[in-house]
Write a structure and sequence with these properties.
The structure holds two protein chains of two kinds. Chain A is mainly alpha-helical. In chain A, a hairpin with a 4-residue loop joins strand 6 (625-627) and strand 7. In chain B, helix 1 packs across helix 9 (259-280) and helix 9 runs antiparallel to helix 10. Classes of the chains: A mainly alpha, B alpha/beta.
Chain lengths: 829, 317
Amino acid sequence: MIRRRLLTLVSLVALPACLGAWQDSDPRASVRALVDAGKLDDAIETARRGGPDLAGLLGETLVLRGRLTAADSALKDAVARQATGWRSAAVALAELAARRGDLADATRRAAELTSAYERSPSGWSSSDRVAAGRAYLLQARGNAQAVRSALAAFDAAYASDATNHDARLRAGELLLEKYNAPEAKSSFEDVLRTAPNDARALLGLSRVASFSGDGPATPLLRRSLERNPSLVPAHLALARQYLSAEAYDSATTAVRAALAVDSSSMGAWAMLGAIAWLQADQTLFTQARDAARRLNPRPSEFYVELAEAAVSHRRYGDGIVHAREALALDSSSVRALGILGTNELRTGQIEQGRARLERAFAIDPFNLWHKNTLDLLDQLKTFKTIETPRFRIIAPPEESELLATYLVPLLEEAYDTLAARYRYRPHGPIRFELYRQHADFSVRTMGIAGIGALGVSFGNLLAMDAPSARQRGEFNWGSTAWHELAHAFTLGASGHRVPRWLSEGLSVLEERRARAGWGAGATAEFIAAYGSGRLRPVSQLNDGFVRPRYSGEVQLSYYQASLVCEMIEKEFGQKAIVDMLTAYKDGLTTPAVFARVLKLTPAQLDARFDAWVRARFASPLRSITASDSGKALGGEFVTAMRRGAEYMSRKQADSARIALERAQSLFPDYAGPSSPAQYLAGLAADRGDYREALAQVTRVTTRSETAWEANMMEVQLRERLGDTLGTRAPLERLLWISPYDVALHGKLAELATRAGDHRTALRERRAILALGPPDPIDARYQLARALAASGDVAAARREVLAVLEQAPSFEKGQALLLELRAAQQRSTP
Amino acid sequence: MSRCVSRLLALSFALACLLPGAASAQRVHVLAVTGLSGEPAYRLAFEAAVSTLVDSARARWRVADSSLVVLAEDLKGTRLRASGRATREAIGQSFLALSRRVAPGDIVLVFLVGHGSGEGVESRVSLPGPDATAADFAGWVAGFPRQTVVFVNASSGSGDFAQALAGPRRVVVTATRTALERNETRFATPFVRALTTDEADADKDGRVSVLEAFTYAKREVARVYETDKRLLTEHAVISDSTLARSVSFGAPRSTTTDPRAAALVAERSELEAQVATLRGRKDKMSPAAYDAELERLLVQVAQKTQAIRALSGAAKP
């Protein structure tokens, strides 16, 4: 540690000496070195001392420092004198015009350069070729060929001079902007091979990491800023990270650092405006907006940033408003069109959204998000819509009937429950989309494949994986639907201002209330994490979602948040939750919400929740410990479980049972995979004690929402014990894990008929038909029978006639037809 | 006028079908072969398919034991009541023996399950000893020129058998489209289930045609792959769907010596024919008129069945 510090000190001392040496030999190299080190004022001074020959370089450095008027003058001087590098100065002038919003001047200047380049590129130096590439980019809006020409010019510049890092970096930046992360990464790595601390290359790699989820981005960003503290794009990238993590103070600090370098940075003022808007700081917002207007009288980019910030904070309606403002200032802004289109799609305005994205894609055909989404919209046209007054369920035609058979009643029940609880009713019908391919759901959600979630709520638009999108037992599609619908209520009730921890916590709590066993439950991992202080206090719980520190923290935070909501309801009443949502809607911050509704400071609430958890999970917390930064679990529970497993592997059933029963007594609620109850059920069944096996397996099925095998075991045990009607409960649970097993539907239908539960019987018979059963004629006949049993003779008759139309020789159908006629004749006076 | 004539023809055909002995003239003969399995799990699956088929042939189709030939991979430890080992020689001898038993118009069902290899006429099923090729089977089935042969090869890589065995009065069913689909096939189980239960009986006439069984099995195979989230690697093929529609398996058609019952059956057949005619006119009728006429006919069909059952003393279905 001491040695490293010494090395750092040596390098700091040595740097000015090195710079001095370069300055003596090559003032141009000296300026560039100072710029790369972030010493912009020294660079400007050095460039000034270099005289007219360095005017272009001086101008470009002044631009970095935000001194635009002086930059303009120096650049014009360089162009007029045709000084060394005057083409770079010429393109810098064009870029300055673009920054001011004078697109005509920018385009004219850029076109002059590219025309000259195309006429005769042979005499152009490497840096001239970079200038040509920059000029092409200024003409790239709606012109894909200009993008390709720009890339070709950067590549040509690098080919003619492999020490021209700027050429390689610009190629990488362009590739990344056009979503080619692998090649962009390769460009940045090329530069780092010869200049391991190049700040722009490090920034580029950081952006690649953010884009592709390929390792952590922040350390690279920090390295970049250590190397060049004046690199404004790096400050802004850091600010964006803080902003998405809802760390507004840190974001502001990062933006202020950028502005301290370059007070003319539109990006910085736009981000400051976004931060101010999110925090409802009108004074700061006005200051940022006015600064933006001074830089460019039509600051579309400012409103685009606002729109992006609104959307990333789930305020989709506001995002649409700001994107429209941006478009009013620049009708061909691809970012504005994209945000507007995407969020119109999220709010159910499908045709409008599609039109915007098509326009955006026509302007920028490289945009992967827009292309994916447009492709998906084409596919969505084949989906079937099932409408009710409250819902529009959109699902693939192959399974829309099946899924709607279950979803419609579930969602209606959930709607009534949630509307009563939150005293809020969503406006208009809620659109519920289901996808058979997880990648399609991901594109609908984010524009690209790769999202890990099962479902998502944008308010009145909910999207989720259909049960067929995943392997059986991976998730419960009923609880997922309930969870997402709960978001529609909590987002709506809070005017989309509810923080993520509270919205997620309430959704998980609602899952648990919907059906026994649904929703997350306590796990050994949760107990270990809580006991070892690896979970956040309530006041910082949002960070557990938006800034997780380790793999699994988000998942654990979901359950923790649900416990917070449960505690608040128990100790302050359900109204407190509604009042909290209202307080957020009123624009209050989280501490202010706690103060207004709970009359507690964040620290007091933290302490109260901690005490509540420690009381509730006293035994598990004593018997489960974590070591090795939470990676390894220990404690008496874990020891007992391990011992039980060991005895089982040695076929020592009695010893295993004793150990597992001990584990169960320490953590009775645990019913996840490999729980004591699961093993004990198996042991009991093996020794023929079916009642005990049933008691144990029921612990699992009523606590775990995805326990397919355990529910199947419960069905078998109940049948064996003669409780045939009792098998309906596990059969119902199985359908919410996977609804595709025709035999299970048939079994449930028969049981329901036997129990006189005609509604369930009919639902099951319809589900069998929707599944495209192996014997569709018999399935329709069974439906007719169920209809007859329910008393709907007319419908039964219609159904049996349809059966006999296809199969007139079907004797069972014939008998039913006569039976129904006789019944109708008896009932006719 | 022509319509009246056709009705009369239909009635006389139906009555003819009911004459004693007319239905029993067509007998079914079954030759089932399980090839080399390689693994216990395959052996269990192959034997389960053949066992179900043979049991059903015996119990449901009333196939005489002398017309049931089962050749198994190994006679030790098998659940099958096998007539012998599934060697190339034994298969050839079995075909020869069957050819001496059959009568004109009989149905010969050949069912193979195992692992396939080779291509074209050299496509083969792996057997103990030398394998039998598609060309061998083509030679053997040539011994049944006046019978209807239903040849089912449920093995992997069986696709080229269809062309090698094509011929008049033959339906060839293969589990795969080509010899190159060589992954393990799932076709045998649903095809046997189709032939041996009522599930595949789409028109509910009490018998399962080869086409019904094939359609059912193909759909169920696709379902299995979809459920398992696997790419479909077998595409079953049938050679003659017209003939396959008319060849069926199931309980022997009911026969009666009671002329009253015979007349009722004939009337019912005529009514069923009218239902078929009505369906053909559906698009030209108003929905209400169609529904009323359909119901009128179907009620009459049902009443005829009720009357037939009353005469025969049979219980309600």
